[in-house]
Structures are given as structure tokens and as C-alpha cells.
Amino acid sequence: MTRPSDDKGTDAGGLSRRKLLRVGAGVALGAGAVGAGWVGFSQDGRQATVRTAGGPGDPSSPTLATKIKNLSGPVETGPFASPWTDLGIPVRCPDGTMLFVCGDTFNGDHVPNPGEPADDWRAPVGLRSSNGDVNNLRIDGSVGGGHARALVDEPHNPVGDKATTAIPSDAFVVDGVMYMHLMRGVIYDTHHTDFWRSTDNGETWEYLCQWPGDLHGGQFQQKTYAVAADGWCYVLSTVFNRDRDSGMLLHRVRKERLGDPNAYEPWGYADGDWRWGAPPTTVFGVRKWGEICFRAMDGKYVLTWLNMNPLSIRAMVFPLPTSDLTRTLEQTLILPSDPRAEAANLVASPYGGFVVPGSTFGNFHIIVSQWYDPRNYRIMQYKINMLS
Questions:
Q1: Which terminus of the chain is more solvent-facing, meaning fewer CB atoms within 10 Å of its CB: N or C?
Q2: Contact 350, 334 (CB under 8 A)
């Protein structure tokens, strides 16, 4: 859960909230509000300026967005004791339903303010749309029935004046089996990450494995998986801390060995060339990252992410997992705004940006989270037009 403010709040009993987003003011509609580029290093080792939407050489039309609906809130998900939730990583289950894997979730008439007890705090939870069609989503059920329960055990143990939680970074399906990756520990101080699977459409989850939080300098904390047609899953990862500079690493793992930490093979630069098995090397320079989502789609790959500076939800499309991302066009999908000025792709305090299964490049949908006061904390569905 990420609140939009310049200050760090505290949870009930002084427990630390997630780092708060900074809301931009006076932003313009469409992709043109993004600067000309960011300097990094290309895969041949030369300095390169990332191509951004609205910058030099941008061939695309402005990227526009349309809000489809609120997916959560007192009306939408209150009947499942989950009026306040975020993230909502969408995964189409083997039975055709759509499960939204959510983060910190609360009951009650508002999100707890600093010093208030947290009412029925759970993470993660699974909210379900019985219709898995990207064009007809509506949450009408949950894992747990009338009271959404935590998908796995997370007691929110106190750690000093803070508490642990379990934040999902991805959920996906391979050969009829669902997988979920969680970041465990105090928010933005990941102790370890763990990996789970479900064979009953997300109703119950089996533990598979875990990774230490400091692996690869912490850059293996936040993981997202693209399930390819070549027998591999490709994994992009970053530090899970919006205040920390982080590279983005690429690994691959055979589908049948997803639960084996030793089977993850890094992509890296060594001896003057890029290759699998070399020491892991950032494929996208160094930035401060929010949520990331990596998917194989329509014979290509798409990456969406929360960009922290400037604040925006962005996307890029490329032909191969090993494509040079420093030379790939960045497109801006969502921009921040004041709550009174929301329109099209202007959204108050946006984060997330997870690709909805069933999307195509001509019908592209994402799940956007929002939190700007105790009664505006939700997940929403947006359709993106003219994604290049």
C-alpha cells in the first residue's frame, strides 16, 4: 500500500506505512509531458539516451487512456470485507475466472490513520471476477467467500516500531498451475522473498522456495515473469524500495523448474559480450523503481512499470527478452494529477500498472492502484489506446 504524500506515515501502533508517493501538479495530458530521455548504457557498452514518448525520434501518437471502472471500494469489494486494497495483480485462472492478487487489505469504514488500530489487516488476498474476459471484469467473489482471507499466513509480526507484511510482485499461470511471488518483511526492507503455487485456481497455495533479500545486492527482490512459448520463463527484477537506486536484472528459468532457485540463469555482460550465464548485469541502467510487470504478448514482450522520476506509469514493447532496453521507446500511459483534475490518463496518486491477461496491443488494459486519503484507496481498470 502506497500513500500519496511527501511524508512517511505510521500504521496502527506506530507501524510504518509504505513510502508515500509524491503527487505531481500541472502535468499535461498524454505522452508529451515526459522529458526527452534518460542516460544509460546500451548493450554494446556505449552511452545511450533512452527514447521516451514525446522525446526526439518518438514515432508514436500520444498515448491516451480511458478509465473503465473502479474494481475495488466499499461498494465493489466491501461485500468481501475488503473495501480498502491495492495492487490487484490480475491472473486468469485455469477455470477461466480472473483472480486479482492484492496487497495490504483492510476492513472498516476507512484505511487506518496513524495511531489507529488496523481493522482486519490481511496481505495478500485474492478477489475474483467470475468473468475472465478483459472487457467484462467485475469482482463478484473472493478466496474465502464473504470474508476474503489471506492467501498465505502473514501475522504482521512487530519489528521495532514497524511490522512485517507480504506484498505480491507477480502472479501467473504455467501449464495449468498458478504461481505467486511475495516480498516478505517490513515494507521496503525485504528480509526474503518466497514463491508459491496453486492447483485449485488460487483457493489454496503450496510453498515452493525462497530467496534472501540481499541476493544480487537486493536487485532480486521484486520479480515479474514473462511466460514464453520457447519453454522458458524470463524474469525481470529490481530492488523493492522506491527510495533506492536499482538496476534491473534479467534471468531465465525452465518452466518445469520454476520452484528451484538454482535453476535461474542470469543474463550478463562479461569478456566484451552479453550472454546467458555471465554475472547478472543491469539491462536498464539504474533508476528508482516502483511496481513492474513483464509479459509475453502477441509474439512480443511488454514491460510496464511505475517510474519514480518523473512519476508516471510507463510501458515499452520489444521483440526479445534480451532486447536492448536502453534503446527501446518508453511510452507514458498514466500521469499524476490533483484528485479534482482527473481525466483520461491523468490519475490522482497512481501506482501499479499490471497488464490484464487477455490484453492485446490493440486492446490493452492495466490495473492501476490509487491512494490519496483514508477513503480513496483502490484498484481500477484502465484501457490504453495507441500503444506502439
A1: C
A2: yes
Q: What residues does 246 pair with on adjacent strands?
A: 287
Q: Report the amino acid identity of residue 240.
A: F
Tens digits of per-residue pLDDT, 100-137? 999 999 999 999 987 777 879 999 999 999 999 999 99
Q: Are 121 and 156 in contact (CB under 8 A)?
A: yes
Q: What is the pLDDT of residues 266-285, one digit of tens each?
A: 999 999 999 999 999 999 99
Grid cell 509475453 is found at: 296
Interacting residues of 140 by C-beta distance below 8 A, sequence separation 6+: 128, 129, 130
DSSP one-letter string for 93-154: -TTS-EEEEESSBB-SSSPPPTTSPPSS-BSSEEEEES---TTS----EETTTTS--BSS--
- The three-state secondary structure class of 110 is coil
Q: How far apart are CA 112 and CA 377, in angstroms?
A: 11
By the 8 A CB rule, do 129 and 140 touch? Answer: yes
CA dist., res. 17 & res. 187, Å (int): 7
Alpha-carbon distance 128 to 130, whole Å? 6
- Decide: 133 and 160 in contact? Cβ < 8 Å: no
